[in-house]
Amino acid sequence: MRFLEILIPLFLSIYFFWPLIQRRRVPAINILPTFTIVLLINHYSIEGWRWQMIPLYIITIFTFLVTLPDFLKKKGEDADSAPRPGWPQTLGLALLLGVSVALPTLLPVPSIPRPGGPFSVGTTTFELTDDSRSDPYAEGEALRRLMVQAWYPAKPGPDEKVAPWMESAEIFTPALSDFINMPPWFLDHLAYAKTNSYQDALPNPEGGPYPLILFSHGWRGFREQNTFQMQELASRGYIVVSIQHTYGAILTIFPDGTIAPNNPSALPSGVPEDEYDAAARKLVAQWAEDIGYTLDILTKWNTNDPAGRFTGPLDLDQIGAMGHSTGGGAVIQFCATDPRCKAGLTMDAFMTPVSESALDNGLQQPFLFLFSQDWADKIDSKNNRLFSRFYPNLKSPAPVITILGTNHYDFSDLPALSPLASQLGLKGPLNGARVQEIINTYTLAFFDQEFKNIPSALFNGSNTNYPEMRYEQR
Questions:
Q1: 293-348 pLDDT per residue, tens
Q2: Exposed, middle or buried, 460 (CB in 10 Å: 0-12/13-18/19+)?
Q3: Phi and psi, residue 213, nearest 5°
Q4: For a pLDDT cut of 90, what percent of the chain falls above it?
Q5: Is 259 left (phi over 0), alpha (psi -120 to 50) or beta?
Q6: Smaller CB count within 10 Å for the chain: N or C?
Q7: pLDDT band for position 79 (50/70/90)?
Q8: 438-463, pLDDT tens digit by residue?
Q9: Phi/psi of residue 136, each to 5°?
Q10: Is residue 247's pLDDT more than 80?
């Protein structure tokens, strides 16, 4: 709960339960219902209202209206003479307040963890249109359009604003609610979620040029889904660029108001396996081209960015890629076909879309493969069989590590949506903050080892600091 959201039930509790301490309410206690109304007004104007707080709003307003006549009548007196509530009344009030506080506690405004590096972080979003490719998933003839977001070491000015977790949340959150099988208004409060990145701040030139990491989300994912990881890398001296794969993402919103929903036919369900596999390979080939095209544009901008933001800060000799799920497959495909990729990291890589050529010829670059326990323990799954076929063909070191107590979505920000994330199928039993700490630690250690010549012992076998990590033998 946010600060004013905590204060409102706190002061109501003091007012309700004061007679259990002293028979009479002193003037300072009598004023609390009025003071709580003031807090409510400030909460509305500063923090913004949300539906999870409605029971508390009702209790606050009702208490104020009921107590106002007595408060005005007794203004100036030392205390009131209201009868002391009995235990049944007290228990009823406690239950009422407990229920009213439960909703905003179980569905809080998500908090993105503060990054730990020495750099402030900036973020910016831009649209790209590839005029050399038509979009096979759009209706009619249309060029391939992408929304892209970058996080980078920044030098924010005094007036820079903190960026929201997601843009156009009022349009996006109904689609995300549908993804977790909830009503469209269920996640409206995500509009209030803030990052620790400064919107459109200028890059910090003092530590550059910086290695570039390209990120690819999963099927029905979105570009902001790993903000905790993006911010950490940027704060440590990396530029991270996330591509939103149009029609494969859960929803894409362009600056001109165009909305591109997820196209289920791009990864069809209920079809024969060979048809599904062909569609998956077509999809990931498109996503790999999205990554490559974005890199083409950034390469041009590094020489001369019309907006001035990306002129010069990129170290184009140090390019990495990372991805989650289907995006992990896209990263494998990209690095198998584009020598500009120097290192890669995948999280629960979806192997079905990877081309036969990449499966059988492997990769030249060093890689780190992270898996959730949920995926890794399904030993006979098609994904694991394909990975076992692919892994022996790798030409460089590639640790394979499972994070015990996790599931597929632990590799994203989604577990921060609620303490009930496990019940919603969005995380495993391992503490969410601990999972993010592990992911950030291993991500940073891997790319620092490859791009900054900082060797790490994390990949040499079991580590006593991280007993949750299981090192797989392949």
A1: 999 999 999 999 988 888 999 999 999 999 999 999 999 999 999 999 999 999 99
A2: exposed
A3: -120, 125
A4: 77
A5: beta
A6: C
A7: very low
A8: 999 999 999 999 999 999 999 988 78
A9: -70, -15
A10: yes
Place of tokens 């407990």: 98
Say how far apart CA 20 and CA 92 lie, in whole Å.
Answer: 14
- For residue 244, count CB atoms less than 10 angstroms from its CB and return exposed for 0-12, middle for 13-18, buried for 19 or more: buried
Residue 439's nearest CA partner among 219, 215, 148 is 215
Residue 337 exposure: Cα atoms within 13 Å on the Cβ side: 22
Distance between CA 239 and CA 231 in Å, rounded? 9
Q: Are 260 and 305 in contact (CB under 8 A)?
A: no
Integer Cα distance of 311 and 299 in angstroms: 9
Q: Do 267 and 282 touch, CB atoms closer than 8 A?
A: no
Count of beta carbons in the 10 Å neighbourhood of residue 429: 10
One-letter amino acid at 157 equals G
Q: Is pLDDT of 84 > 80?
A: no
Lowest average pLDDT, out of 67-71, 369-373, 407-411, 415-419, goes to 67-71
Q: What is the pLDDT of residue 13?
A: 87
Residue positions counted in the chain: 474
Q: Report the distance separating Cα 84 and Cα 453, nearest Å.
A: 71
Name residues whose C-beta falls within 8 Å of residue 467's C-beta, 6 or more positions apart in sequence: none
Average of per-residue pLDDT values in the chain: 91
Tokens of 465: 């600091």
Question: From CA 121, how far away is CA 197, in angstroms rounded?
Answer: 5
- Let me know if 101 is exposed, middle or buried by CB neighbors in 10 A (0-12, 13-18, 19+): buried
Q: Domain 120-471 class? A: alpha beta
Please determine, for residue 74, whether its predicted confidence score (pLDDT) is greater than 70. Answer: no
What does the block give as tokens for 428? 């495993």
pTM: 0.91
Show me where the domains of the chain are located: 3-106, 120-471
Q: What gap in Å lies between CA 325 and CA 215, rounded to an integer?
A: 11
